[in-house]
Each structure stands twice: as structure tokens, then as C-alpha cells.
Amino acid sequence: MRTCYIPYFLLIISTCISCGPKEAKNHIQVGFAQAMSSDNWRKEMEKGMQVQSSLYPHVKLEIKNANNNVESQIQQIHDFIDERVDVLIVSPIKSKPVTAAIENALKAGIPTIIIDRKIDGNNYTAYIGANNMDIGKDAAKYILSGIKDFTSVVQITGDIASSPARERQLGFESVLKKSEKVKLVATIHGDWEKPSVTGPLDKLLDSMTPGYIFAHNDRMAMGVWEVLKQHDLQNKVKIVGVDGLYGPNGGIQYVKDKILLATILYPTGGAEAIDLAVKIVNGEFVHKNNTLNTVVIDSVNVDLMQNQFNKLVEQQNDIEGQQQVINEQVKAYQSQNSMIKLMIGLLVLLLALALWSIYSAVKISRSKRKLEIINEKIKTQRNQIKKFAQQLKESNDSKINFFTALSHEFKTPLTLITSSVETIFEQNKALVGQSSFEMNLIINNSKRLIRLINELLDFRKLETDSFTLKPRKSDIKEIMEHVLGDFKLEAVKHSVQLKVKYPKSPCYLWVDTNALDKVFFNVLSNAMKFTPAHGKIEVEIFEEEEKVKICIRDTGIGIPQEDIQNIFNPFVQASNNDRPSSGLGLYIAKQFIELHKGTIAIHTQKGTEFIIVIPKGNKHLQHIKIYPDNIQITEEFENHLKPSEPESILFEPASVQDNFSDLLIIEDNTDLCHLLVKQLKNDYNIYISIGNDAIEKALDIIPDIVICDLNLPETSGFELAKKLKEDLRTSHIPVIVLTAMGDEDSYIKAMNAGADFYITKPFQMDALKQVLKTILYNRERLRYYYANKLDSIASVGFDKDEQDFVKKINAYVLENLNNPEFSVEELAKELHISRVQLYRKVKAILGVSISDYINGVRLEKAQELLQDSSLHISEIAYGVGFSSPGYFSTAFKNKYGITPKRYRN
Ligand code: FRU
């Protein structure tokens, strides 16, 4: 906005600067068409004009020089006419040719002054110049006044086409005619310049010597003198010239130098012409013919004339000097004037800009204030919205968290109910008889509740992006068959025909079987729900080059067209469906399929068709961790636990069985503890901790294996696992995590804490039993390894802490080989653990008691010595730390089945 005013201000300034007092219409433009500027007389004329016009500040003089060229002069006159000069002054080169041009000027309304030379006729405004007839007459009279005897005279004229030459000749000859004492013997026609004279005169002088020569100007007169000099007649022939110029090459000087007898002053009229022009422009009266005075200058008055001219020149110089000063002052005034104008302009601009800046500043500050207020309002609103959103989120989160936590909480009791009822049902089949319908009702509805809870938990995971796909290579037919198994009975019950069409060979896809299981279950239960009796459900699997297509068609009521686009949204159910539904099943199905980079679409006309497409291979799952086929994370599915009669939990085993392994269960759910005790008490000595005393118990018992929940009062399973694994006394104990937290993060956290196995609830009891067995079996193998490779425990793949522990024991034992006093207590002290802990740890790792182990090391050393040394057997016995050779012999025979003596032989 501001910038568009700047040009406007600049315009004002430039106008201010340029709008000083206008000289244009006050000044007088004078154009002078000069015949030539080559001679001093003409220069004197121009100088006179310039000096005089400088006295008129408003007179502007322009001189155009025709260089004695008539065409040029005519053109220049026309140029002045075009310029519309106020006055035109012309000194015509020749009379006739210039006349018409001057008439044109008059026609154009330009007053025209003729100077020095005339034109044909009187068509001009004014003439200024001396009377040339009189000049001719004065010259003749002067010659006549000087002669006594008869004498001859020669005349040298100027250019006869110019009026002065014609008039001077006329005047001269008119006087001479009347006298009998002189005779004009010859007339030479020159062109006003010296060269035009010399040739003809030179010739003439060959034949005669005149008494006088009259030249029409001093320049030609000087030429005459030079020719006379050549003929040595300079003192014999007298010369009279015209012009009488002042200065070194002027006629006055020639008279003084006796070159000329006399010269007739011919004033240039330059100054007078300017006066005349001003008068004409000012409308003052002027004479048409303005005659300038002439005078004869000879030896009598030459000094006087020169003095007068000197004074005149001095005055003229003074005037010029003063004029110079005035000009400089005018220039200074003008530049100062321009400067002041410029400064005023800038001041105005500055003022305007200052005003504009103040105006803008006020405007901006007002807008700023307004914006600040709006901003403040927006901020407040935003903060309020933020606060509301935060409150909403917190309330929502807390609801969902509560809901999720509650769902988790539901899982264990539901599992217990289901499995307990199933067990009762199985064990009392004969008794329940007629109640079997109710039993099935309980079982089926419990299962349904578990499924719904799982659905809600899946939904939550999908919503929070925390669901992790665990893809593995699986036969899709097998998964479908497994799911269909759940529907077969129901189909028969409802008289619905269940048809399948599979490719013959296995149909492998990289899928999360658990997720796909849920997808198929949801779609099939949907089909089952809406297919009436005697209807049909068809499952078809097509294998294509890059993908597998699974179609599930039913002959049910179908889905209204308007519902189709929303049917996969959460909490949505078809408008023709009035059965209770969570509205999550299809949403979860779609999310799971999309996690596999597949698609699920629905077609409905008569009945409904779901088309599921899943890409083959696992390239599209590169961003997801691919699980191997033999993954050891148990999957969730309904359990089939068979708990026996409820009993109080055994926090310590009633009687410790030596051949049983010690199992410490860290779990706060009493029911689950009961179940585990019931199921495992026949194979294990079970110890229970609810978490707070778990470490103390573990250190006390040094169990063979630990089962640990993650969510515990006062502590967490992660922390317990970490503590157990960091302590040398318990680091060898395998820890199985048994938890409802099925997310990837918890799994990784538990593994980092040192857990050996991770099992999610609800779990399969058989699987847990198998895991326990496998772990203990592996331990046994390890023990065997340690027990048989005591000296070379460096193999990779075994627990580093345990290797170090065994190595340490070996080092101490070998160091104290010949020390019969070396005891288990001493060794425990060296290892910074108690005797009992040492005993249990060695037993757990190596499967033997610490004293047996020490003996074993001693006997091995003894075996070596028997082979490689000649030491006596008793020396060897004492050397490896046995208190008597007899005891050594018995121990040796026990271990190797042969006495030392026989062994050596
Ligand atoms: C100068 C001049 C003078 C002479 C006059 C006549 O150009 O030749 O010497 O008197 O012109 O017009």
C-alpha cells in the first residue's frame, strides 16, 4: 500500500523543482543568419551582438554561419522560420538569391532585420548598416583632396553580387567622374578576399603604375600592398581601404603602419542590430533604414581613433568581465535555486513519509492489537479444546483401560469355569445325564464369553496399533478345517448344509494362524447366524498364481445394499439384523486381513458372499517379523483343563519327594494356583509365592524351575526374573512366564529380563506340562555334559554364568588337591554363597552333590597320575587329597569299577 504512493510524491517533487518562474515566454529568441565568420570584421560583428544581447537577460541569440554558401544561408533562414524565432537578423551573402527566403520569414510573421548587405527590394522590417554610396564617395573625395597633378586610379571591388560592392562602386565612380585631375584607369572585381585581387592586379601593374588604388575593404587593400611590394611600388602607389577595424590586422593598424593611406570606418552594426530587435519585439517604433556613421581614418586622426577604440575595447572588456561575473552568479543562483527546490521537495517527501509512517504505525498497532485479541481468544479456545480433548481422552482411556483390564480379569475365571465344568461333565457323565443340556449351555456360553472378550481385546489392540502380526507358513486348508470343526455340529443341528471345495494339495500362506482363525470364525458364524434351516453354506478355496482366494457363501437373508459400505466399520450391524451382536467381528476380520496385505469384500444378492484374498509368499510382510514354524509361544485358545476337587493351596509341599523336581510358582490368583497345584503336584514338589517373598523363597529352596506371573502385587514378574537371573545362586534356574499379557512388548521385556519361556493365558495345561518336562530334560542333558566334560567346559550354547561357576569350582578343587582339610564350607566361602546354596546349585547344574563332585575331580586326577607317573599308589591317594589309601581305593573302585592297583597294571 505504502509503495504505491511514492511515485506520486516523486511527481510532486519533480513538479516543484521544475515549476520555477518560466522564462519561456519572457525571453526573446533572436536568430542571426551570418554570411560567414572567416574574417575579423564578421567576428567583430558577432561579438558586438553577443555583448549587447548579454545586456538583455531575456535575449537569447543564436548564430548560424553559412560559410559564404548562399544555399546554406537560405536553408538556415528557413530553419529559423521553423524554430519560430522572435526576430530574424540576416546578413545576405548575395542580394538576389536570399530575397525570397526573407520574404518567407516575413510571411511567417517573423520580423526580419537586414544588416550590412541588402536584398532586392524593400521587403524587410528594418535595415541597419552604413551608407555604402557615401563610403564610395568619401573614398573618391579623399583621393581628390590629396592630388595636385593629374593621376590615375584603380578600383578593386568586393563581390559585385553583394550590395556594398555595387553601392561603393557607384558612389566612388560618381565623384571621380566629375573631376578632370583623376582618371579611373581600371576596375578589378574581387570577392572581398585577398586572393581574388593578387592575380589581376599583378598583371595590371605590368603595364601601368596608378597613383591610387581604392580597395572596397582593408583585407583586399592589404593584398594590393603585397602585390605593390612585389613590384616595388609600395611607396609610389597610395592605397585607400574600407572597414577601419581596430586590432593587429585591422585597417587602423595598417594606416598607422603606412601600408594604407587611409581607411573608411565601416561599422559592423552588431550591437545596434540587437537593440533594434529588442525594440521590434517590444513593439517600439523603429526606422526602416538605420544608417550608421562612417569616417575616414588617415594619419591625421588615426591615433585619436585608436585611443577611442582602446577605451571602447576597455569598456567592452569591463562589460564582458562584469557580464561574466553576472553569469557566474546567475549560474550559482540557479544551482542554489535548484538545490533549494530539491531540498524542499525532499522535505515534503520526508514529511509525507513521516506522516505516512505514523499513520501506518497507528494502523498496524491497531491491527496488531486486534490480531492479538483474536489470537488470545483462539489460544484460550484451543487450550479449552485441548483440555476437553485431554479430559475426554483421559476419561476414554481410563474407561477403555478399565474395560481392557476387566476383560483380562475375566479371562482367568472364565477359563477356570469352562475347564471346571468340562471336567465335572467328563468325570460325572453318568450322573449328570439329564443335566447335560444345561452343562453344554454353560460351556458354550462361557466359550462365547471368552471369544467376546478376546474380540474386545483384539479391537483395543488394533485401535492402539499394538497388535503384532505373527506370520508363519501355514496350510490355509488346515486352518479352515479347524474352524469348520466348531460349526459342524451346529450345522447339523440347524439343518444347514456345509459344503467345502479345496484344492488337492496343501495351500500354504504366510499368515498369523490365530488371526486368520478369528477371521474365518467371524465370517462363518455370521453365515451360520443368517442362514435359515435347509439353507447352505459353501466354503471354496482357489489357488491362483500370486494369491489365494477364499469364498464363503451362504443362502441367508443377505445384507441390504445400503449397509454394505459400512458393514466393516466397528459397532455396525446390518439393518435387517436384529440379533444381539458386538458389531466388532467383521471390523476385526477386515483389519486382520489388511494386516496380511489382503482384501476382504462382500457381495450380496440372494444370500451373502465374502471374498477374502491373501497374497502368497512373505515378500509383502517384509516389515513384519516372520516367525519360524517351530515357534515356542503358545497360542491362545480355549483350554480344556480338568481341575479336581477344590482344595486349599499348598504353600509348601506336604511331603517332599526326593525324585520330584522342585517347582516354585509365583502367582497371586488363588484359583489358578489351585489348578496348577492339582495338575502338577503328582510330578513336582510345589512351592507357592504371591510375589512379595518370591526371591527369599527361591534363595531358600533353590528350585529346579520357576513359573512366574507378570502382574503381581508389590512387584512385577519382569523384576523377579531379572533378580533371579542376576544372582549367581539362582541364575541357573529356568523361569517360565505365565501371563495374560499377550503383547509383543511384554514378551520382549520378559525375555530381556532373562525369562526362558513365555506362555500366555488362557493356556493349555498339557502344553505347560510339556514345557516343564522339556526344560528339565534339557537341564539333565546339560548336567550330563558338565559331569562328563569337567575339564573342557568351554563349549558354546551353554549358559555362560554356569560355565564360569563350574570353572571356578574346578580351579579351587585342583588348587587344593593335596589338601585333605579342604572342605565344602571353605569352597562355599570362596564362592560367597552358603553351604546349602552351593550344595543345591551344584546339584541342580551337575546332578551330583558337591562332595561327590570334588571326589570325582580328585579321582580323575588320580587316574591320570596312575597312568602317567611312577608314584606309589598311597602317594597318589594322599596327593589327590584322600585321607587314607584304603578310602581312595574304595572310592576309585566305586567310580571306575576297578581298583587303582589293577588299573595301573
Ligand atoms: C566583411 C566584408 C567587409 C566589407 C563588407 C561588405 O565580410 O567583406 O570587409 O566591408 O563585408 O559587406
Automatic annotation (TrEMBL):
Reactions accelerated catalytically:
ATP + protein L-histidine = ADP + protein N-phospho-L-histidine
Q: What residue intervals traverse the membrane?
A: 342-362
The record places domain HTH araC/xylS-type at 807-905
Q: Which Gene3D superfamilies match?
A: 1.10.287.130, 3.40.50.2300, Histidine kinase-like ATPase, C-terminal domain, Homeodomain-like
Query: Under which EC number(s) is this enzyme classified?
Result: 2.7.13.3
Coiled coil segments of this chain: 364-398
Q: Where is the Histidine kinase domain?
A: 405-618
Annotated keywords: Coiled coil, DNA-binding, Membrane, Phosphoprotein, Transcription, Transcription regulation, Transmembrane, Transmembrane helix
Q: Which SUPFAM superfamilies match?
A: ATPase domain of HSP90 chaperone/DNA topoisomerase II/histidine kinase, CheY-like, Homeodomain-like, Homodimeric domain of signal transducing histidine kinase, Periplasmic binding protein-like I
Please tell me whether the keyword Ligase is annotated for this protein.
Answer: no
- Domain called Response regulatory: residue spans: 662-776
Where does the record place the modification 4-aspartylphosphate? Answer: 709
Q: Does the keyword Transcription apply?
A: yes
Report what the protein is called. Answer: histidine kinase
> Which organism's genome codes for this protein?
Galbibacter pacificus
